[in-house]
Give the backbone structure.
Amino acid sequence: MKTLHKSNNKMICGVCGGIAEYFNIDPTIVRLGFVGFSIIFGSGLLAYIVAAIIMPSADSGNEVH
């Protein structure tokens, strides 16, 4: 079962990298999406902070495939 977690490929907290790994897409696309939501709707920054608090950290050796 695939789980959503923070990534080791991180710029700030690893949220965008974790989301990108979960959906198997480029992290840059997710990062640009968060910036876009922040500029257009003002909710991207709030969503990022909430996700950084809620998402578990990546466990390097305990992944279940």
